[in-house]
Design goal:
- By secondary structure, this protein is mostly helical.
- The protein has one domain (about 1-104).
- Helix content is about 80%, strand content about 0%.
- It contains four helices and no strands.
- It has helices at about 1-20, 30-50, 55-75, 85-104.
- Helix 1 runs antiparallel to helix 2, helix 1 (about 1-20) crosses helix 3 and helix 3 packs antiparallel against helix 4 (about 85-104).
């Protein structure tokens, strides 16, 4: 259960990271509200997951999931391009996340 919650919290990290960019310095209400809600959900989920998963592993997995999804979101929307280099580095990051789960 903790791992499922950790993955969901990583997803929420990508949501709040994308929302903060869309908020234009907290001037747009919708993205600002989304940022706050996603931030709270992300932190609560991370904190709960850390009761069952070592802090270093949980934090690294949470950050990794958030980072990968935050990069892929604008790619999926056609706003950024996924170059060979970026794609390769994302694959390495995903491999490291999986590795932390396997050894942790």
């Amino acid at each position: 259960m903790a791992w499922v919650l950790l993955v969901a919290s990583g997803l929420m990290e990508a949501v709040w990271a994308s929302a903060i960019g869309a908020s234009q310095g907290f001037r747009k209400k919708g993205p600002t509200v989304l940022f706050v809600v996603a931030l709270v959900l992300s932190m609560v989920g991370l904190a709960y997951a850390m009761t069952a998963i070592p802090t270093g592993t949980a934090y690294a997995v949470w950050v990794g999931i958030g980072a990968v999804l935050t990069v892929l979101y604008p790619v999926a929307r056609g706003k950024e391009q996924l170059t060979l280099g970026r794609g390769g580095l994302l694959l390495v990051l995903i491999g490291c996340i999986i590795g932390l789960k396997v050894v942790g």
